[in-house]
Amino acid sequence: MDTTAPLVWIDCEMTGLDPLHDTIIEIACVVTDGNLNVLEQGENIVIHQPAAVMDAMGEWCRHHHGESGLTQSVLESKTTMADAEAAVLALVKRHCRDPRTAVLAGNSVHADRAFLSRYMPELTAFLHYRIVDVSSIKELARRWNPQVLAQVPPKQEKHRALDDILESIAELRFYKQHLFAPSSF
Fold first, then answer.
1. 62-70 — which CB contacts under 8 Å span 24+ positions?
2. Which backbone phi and psi does 169 adopt, to 5 degrees?
3. Which of 34-44 are b and which e, b meaning 16 or more Cβ less than 10 Å from the residue's Cβ?
4. Cα 64–chain centre separation
5. Contact 117, 10 (CB under 8 A)
6. Nearest to 73 by CA among 55, 53, 49, 52
7. Are 92 and 85 in contact (CB under 8 A)?
8. Domains of the chain
9. How far apart are CA 158 and CA 139, in angstroms?
10. Which of 64, 75, 91, 154 stands the most exposed, by the fewest C-beta atoms within 10 Å?
11. What's the pLDDT at 136?
12. What are the pLDDT tens digits along the chain (185 aa)?
């Protein structure tokens, strides 16, 4: 596998955590090179859902999506799931021409991938099966190097897709500098 290939950072905001019963309401994508330099930054794409879907959200989602303004934006949006998938796939293809070469990256990105598999199958089919999960690195640092973890820049916890991606990239840059610095071997 080409270690210089771009990383495709995707974050979704959903109505819950179960892809069988919940859905994607916002998605963003950023493509970086292998050294975490941004090659292209997409926008937050808010996907329309009817009021009944939004009203069925659990308390955590109602509170956070309401507070961030996402709930109202979802109700007002005209963007369909298919429109959102096409926009993200086009962004990815500008940097990763060949299928199955785009490595997905993010925090707990396996959860995003589960929703992408259900709701954006064309995008999912284009992505490589490997992922870079920043939360796995955080969990290892918590266990093996807690003094480094204590220095990680704090997150704003805005719970908007693009903000979350940019914080994940910054977090991985921190780990790269402090946990994965080149050695003298």
1. 64/159, 65/13, 65/25, 65/159, 68/158, 68/159, 68/160, 70/13, 70/25, 70/26, 70/46, 70/159, 70/160
2. -65, -45
3. eeeeeeebbeb
4. 17
5. no
6. 49
7. no
8. 7-179 (3.30.420.10)
9. 21
10. 154
11. 97
12. 567 789 999 999 999 999 999 999 999 999 999 999 999 999 999 999 999 999 999 999 999 999 999 999 999 999 999 999 999 999 999 999 999 999 999 999 999 999 999 999 999 999 999 999 999 999 999 999 999 988 998 888 888 999 999 999 999 999 999 998 776 55
Phi first, then psi: give them for residue 178, nearest 5 degrees. Answer: -100, -25
CA distances from 120 to 84, 158, 168, 184 (A): 9, 24, 22, 44
Tokens in use for 155? 């997150």
Instruction: Give the residue numbers marked as catalytic.
Output: 159
Length of the chain: 185
Please state the pTM of the whole predicted model. 0.94
